[in-house]
Amino acid sequence: MTPTTSTRFHGETVDLVAVGRYVAGTPPLPELSEAEQEYTAQVMVQAGFSTTTVADRLGVSDRTVTRWRAAWSQEEEAAADTLHWQTRGACADEDPDLFFPTGTKAEAYVMGEQAKAICRRCPVMDQCQAWALEHRMSKGVWGGLGDGQRRNVLRQRGRGEVA
User: Fold this and answer.
1) At 9, phi and psi to the nearest 5?
2) What is the dihedral sign for C-alpha 7, 10, 11, 17?
3) Is 28 left (phi over 0), alpha (psi -120 to 50) or beta?
4) What is the three-class DSSP state of 91?
5) Do 9 and 39 form a contact (C-beta atoms < 8 A)?
6) Using the 8-state DSSP alphabet, how is residue 94 labeled?
7) Burial class (CB in 10 A: 0-12, 13-18, 19+), 14
8) Long-range Cβ contact pairs of 158-163 (< 8 A, separation 24 or more)
C-alpha cells in the first residue's frame, strides 16, 4: 500500500511531506503555498505548539495564525451544528417507527400524517428536509415530507423547477 503524501485543504492539494518537515523543523524547509501554510499551522496548533512558535516557523505574523485559529473555531462550530441538528428535532423523543409507516395503506397513511404533524412543530424541520433530499433518503418521513413527496421535489429540481 502506497503511503498518502498529499491531502486536500480548502480545495487545494497540500504536500504532507512538506508539512511534516515544518512540524518537525527539519531542514530544508520548502516554500509552502498559503493553503499549505494554514494546514501546517493547524497541525502544529493541534500538536500543542504556541501561536508564536507556529508563526515563527512558518514565517508569518502571530496575527495571521490568530486569524486562522478564529476561522477554524467558526468552521468547527458550523460542523458541530450541522452534525447535531438531529438531537434538537421534535422527533428525538418520539418512537422512530412512527416516521417509517407500515401496515395497511390506511394505517401507514395515519402514521405518516402523525409524523408530519410532529415535523411541523420541529425547530429543525428545514435542516432535516434538506438533509433528506441531499442524501436521497428513500424511506420514511423527513422534514415533514414522505418518500413520494421527496421524490417529487427531486424530480422538479432535476427539471430545473423551483420546489
Assistant:
1) -145, 120
2) negative
3) beta
4) helix
5) yes
6) S
7) buried
8) none
Looking at the chain, list the stretches that DSSP marks H as alpha helix, in order from N- to C-terminal side.
16-24, 34-46, 51-58, 62-83, 105-120, 125-134, 147-158
Is the model's pLDDT at 111 over the cut of 90?
yes
DSSP conformational letter for 101: -
Q: What is the pLDDT of residue 148?
A: 92
pLDDT bin (cut points 50, 70, 90) of residue 116 is very high
Whole-angstrom CA distances from 73 to 67, 69, 80, 139 are 10, 6, 10, 35
State the cell numbers at 72. Answer: 477554524
What is the CB-side half-sphere exposure of residue 7 using CA atoms within 13 A? Answer: 13
DSSP label of 132: H
Q: Which three cell numbers stand for residue 86?
A: 438531529
Contacts of 78 (CB under 8 A, 6+ apart): none
Residue 111, C-alpha cell as written in the block = 402514521
pLDDT at 106: 92
As to burial, measured by CB atoms within 10 angstroms (0-12 exposed, 13-18 middle, 19+ buried), residue 31 is: exposed
